Amino acid sequence: NAGVMQNPRHLVRRRGQEARLRCSPMKGHSHVYWYRQLPEEGLKFMVYLQKENIIDESGMPKERFSAEFPKEGPSILRIQQVVRGDSAAYFCASSPGQGGLDTQYFGPGTRLTVL
Amino acid sequence: DQQVKQNSPSLSVQEGRISILNCDYTNSMFDYFLWYKKYPAEGPTFLISISSIKDKNEDGRFTVFLNKSAKHLSLHIVPSQPGDSAVYFCAASANKAAGNKLTFGGGTRVLVKP
After folding, report:
1. Of B25, B64, B101, which to mutate for an interface test with A (greatest number of A Cβ within 10 Å)?
2. How do the pLDDT tens digits run along chain B, 114 residues long?
3. Which residue, of A29, A48, A55, A97, is most buried by count of CB atoms within 10 Å of its CB?
4. Looking at the complex, does the CB of residue B100 fall below 8 Å from at least one CB of chain A?
5. Are the CB atoms for A19 and A6 separated by under 8 Å?
6. Measured between CA atoms, how close is A56 to chain B, in angstroms?
7. C-alpha pair distances (Å), B32 with each of A63, A110, B90
8. Which residues in chain B are closer than 8 Å to A25, comparing Cβ atoms?
């Protein structure tokens, strides 16, 4: 009974490089969410996706960040031209999306360090 | 604007006693509330939730209380165990109005002393 999978668990990038974070939702879940946790802070919503659709990207920075959830394969959060301020833990969550009150289950996170 | 607040950054409790964690919110559109537990270097683990149509939900040692008029919820853990030492996050969503995105509080670090 695999939970939400994220990889890599740790990612180190130099300023200006690209970071790609992957998330495979729980079996049977069709909704994916990305959250970011800066040091000593709570989690902040970034984006909500269903297969091939971005439903809500109100928490995404306007530039350099993008997300997708293709028909096949994991969801990808992509950060272009990373800066030091992007260093954070990025968590993916998934939910069944059956309507009503939908509980989200989280993956272990990817810890991004920008040098 | 911080729509979900956990005003106690930390809590220390003796093993076997009750832990009470508090959470306040400002958005009256929130209709679903959840508590998550988080260990260092791991993702949040879902503990318990409550719908806005209820005022109490219980699951084993965990009980969540919701006071809608005060926009306040609390998590009771009894009896507290050393393995409960973690950071606890309160989260809320406005499913009917704004989809399912969760708004989190800043967390309360709980230390259960043996």
Report:
1. B101
2. 689 999 999 999 999 999 999 999 999 989 999 999 999 989 999 999 999 999 999 999 999 999 999 999 999 999 999 999 999 999 999 875 555 789 999 999 999 999
3. A48
4. yes
5. no
6. 8
7. 31, 27, 11
8. none
